[in-house]
Amino acid sequence: MPDYIQNTYNTLNSYGFDKGKTIGMVAICRDEITDTLMDKVIKYWGKTFNCCSLAGFVMMGKTGLAAATDHTPIIDGKRRFTFYAMPHIAISKNGEIGKVYRSGIQKASHACGALEAIVKELESGSLQLIMDMQDIEQSIIRQKILSRLKYGEKPNLVEMTKLVSQMISQDVNKLLSSLDNSIFNYAVMTGIQIHGLLDTHWIYPQDFYVVSSDLAGAQKNLK
After folding, report:
1. What's residue 173's pLDDT?
2. Which residues form the Limiting CO2-inducible protein B/C beta carbonyic anhydrase domain (predicted)?
3. Which of 50, 124, 138, 191 could form a disulfide with 205 if both were Cys (CB 3.0 to 4.6 A apart)?
4. β partners of residue 26
């Protein structure tokens, strides 16, 4: 993960994204073990707008985006921001998928717990389809995921995490497409945050692209 963040930073420098005239935006899971990604984005990009929700889904909507973009500095008539959005998954020291041993807790806990709960519901055939006003984010996540599955599909946690990564990428693209590219230049990085043994953190990359009026075609996919 440190290499990933540094590489995206170095690459974006050549497109005019510099610390001081660019704000970071991060949409990752609320889980405290994802803080390492947030901390790295803050280190490289400075002030960063928190767009987090359960499982890393982008729940901010148009109102949240309006707030985030309104906080973006105007330099040379342009507003620049970077947007990192991704779910997460853990691999324990024993090779267990979705399990993590947190400091001070003897038994294994879950990452991502929100996605694992839906995986287990699908396995059991008992789905909580009613909107729970005391659990709105999880209710929305469940509905969004079910809308993407075919009847009878029961993805495991790895498959579910990859599906959610694709969904988040599409949600980000749709949300940001409403922005005026003559004013806003932005970069999007999506993928999966992976928590490994010995407190290591990795990124499984998916999308990396820049949208700018300075580019032919407005958007350029990067490696």
Report:
1. 95
2. 2-211
3. 191
4. 50, 84
What's the rounded Cα separation, in Å, for the pair 54 and 137?
A: 7
Residues 192-211, mean pLDDT to the nearest whole number: 92
Evaluate whether residue 129 is within a structural domain: no
The residue segments making up the domain with residue 178 are: 2-95+162-221
3-state secondary structure of 158: helix
CATH number at residue 179: 3.40.1050
Per-chain mean pLDDT for the chain: 90
- Give the DSSP letter string of 23-59: EEEEE--S-GGGHHHHHHHHHHH-SEEE---GGG---
Asked whether the predicted pLDDT for residue 83 surpasses 90, the reply is yes
Query: Stretch 121-148: mean pLDDT, rounded?
Result: 90
Crossing angle between the packed helical segments 157-176 and 136-146, to the nearest 10 degrees: 100
Query: Cα torsion for 57, 178, 83, 14, to the nearest 10°?
Result: 160
| 100 occurs within a structural domain | no
Pairing of strands 48-50, 74-75: unpaired
199: left (phi over 0), alpha (psi -120 to 50) or beta: left
In a domain, 19, yes or no: yes
**CB-based contact 212:179 (threshold 8 Å):** no
What pLDDT, on a 0 to 100 scale, did the predictor assign at position 216?
58
End-to-end CA distance of the chain: 15
Please tell me the number of Cα atoms within 13 Å of 140 on its side-chain side. 14
For helices 113-124 and 136-146, give the axis angle rounded to 10 degrees: 60
Nearest to 164 by CA among 126, 105, 118, 219: 118
